[in-house]
Amino acid sequence: MLANTSESSDFTSLEDEFQGRIGKPILHLRNTTSTMDVARELINESNHDADLHGTTIFADEQTKGRGRFDRTWDSEPGKDILVSLILSPRTAIAGRLPIMASLAVAITVDHFSPDVSSIKWPNDVLVHGKKISGVIAESVTTDRSFVGIIGIGLNVNRRTDSERSRGYLATSIRDVSESSQDLDRKAVVTVLLANLNELHDALDRGESIMPEWREKLVGLGSPVEVSMPSEESVEVIAGVAEDVDEFGRLLIREPDGTLRAVAAGEVTTRT
C-alpha cells in the first residue's frame, strides 16, 4: 500500500476550478513513500494514459521523497507542497515540461515573496541564492504512449534556521516573507496550479516560454563546472555558461573553444 488518503485535506475542493486541466483530478494523501511512486503506480494500472493527463498527487508527508540524482527530499509533515503531476502532452512540447514547471514555481514564489526568485539551471528555484524548490522529471513509455511525471517540492512553511549551521542553503516562502505564522498551503497550491495551466496552455498554442525562463536563470556568462553522473562514472565539463538553446540545454564554451550543449547535470559556479 503506497498511500493513505487524507481525511482532513481540502486540496481536492480545487478540482472544480481546473476541469480538464492540470489539477483534475486531485489526489491528496496523508502520507506515502513518494508522490512519484504513486504516479507510476497509477500509470501502470491504467489502460488509457490520456485519461490521466492533469492528475495531480499531493502528499502531506513522504517517507522516501527524492530529488534529482536520487537525492533525498526532506520536508516536515504538513508544512510544504509535495506534488507530482501526470501529463500526457503533445510530443512537440514534452521536452518543455520541466521548464514549464520550474517557471511556474518561480512565478508562484514571486506572488508570495517580496524578493524576486531565480532559477539555477536546469530547474532549482532560489531566493537570495537559497533553494526554495526543486523539480524533477521522469517519463514512462508504455506500449500506448509517452507519459511524463513532474515532481515538485516547494518549501512553504519549513523553518530553515537550524539548517544554516550545517551549511545547507535552503529557504521557504514563510522565511522570505518574514511571516510569523504558517501560510495557507491551499492558497499557494491554487496559485501554483493556475500558473502551471497558464504556461501549459501557452505551450499548447505553440507559444514560447523560453524568454521568460531564460530571464530567471542565474549563472549565464559565468565559469561553471557541470557534473553528469552515470552508472559507471561522473563526467565533468568545465567552461563558460554562454546561454541556453531552444530545448533548455546549457551551452558551455570549453577552454578549447568547443561549444557543448548539456541536457542535464549538476552545475557549480567557479570563482
Structure description:
With 271 residues, the protein is an alpha+beta fold. It has two domains: 3-215, BirA Bifunctional Protein, domain 2 (2-Layer Sandwich); 220-269, SH3 type barrels (Roll), CATH 2.30.30. It contains six helices and 14 strands. It has helices at 35-45, 97-112, 161-164, 173-177, 185-204, 210-216; strands at 3-5, 26-32, 56-59, 81-87, 118-120, 124-127, 130-141, 146-154, 217-218, 223-229, 234-244, 250-253, 259-262, 266-269. The strands form two sheets. The protein has a nine-stranded mixed beta sheet, sandwiched between helices. It has a five-stranded antiparallel beta sheet with strand order 13-12-11-10-14, with no helix packed on it.
Radius of gyration using CA atoms only: 18 Å
Largest sheet: 9 strands, mixed
Strand content: 25-35%
**First CA to last CA: what distance?**
48 Å
**Poorly predicted sequence stretches spanning 5 or more consecutive residues:** 1-8
- Determine the structural class based on helices, strands and strand pairing: alpha+beta
Mean pLDDT: 88
Total separate domains? 2
> What's the total number of strands?
14
Output the CATH class name of the largest domain.
Alpha Beta
Number of helices: 6
How much helix is in the residues? Answer: 10-25%
CATH homologous superfamily heading of the largest domain: Bira Bifunctional Protein, Domain 2
Strand order of the largest sheet: 1-2-3-4-8-7-6-5-9
The 3D shape can be described as globular
Topology-level CATH name of the largest domain:
BirA Bifunctional Protein, domain 2
H-E order: EEHEEHEEEEHHHHEEEEEE
Return the CATH architecture of the largest domain.
2-Layer Sandwich
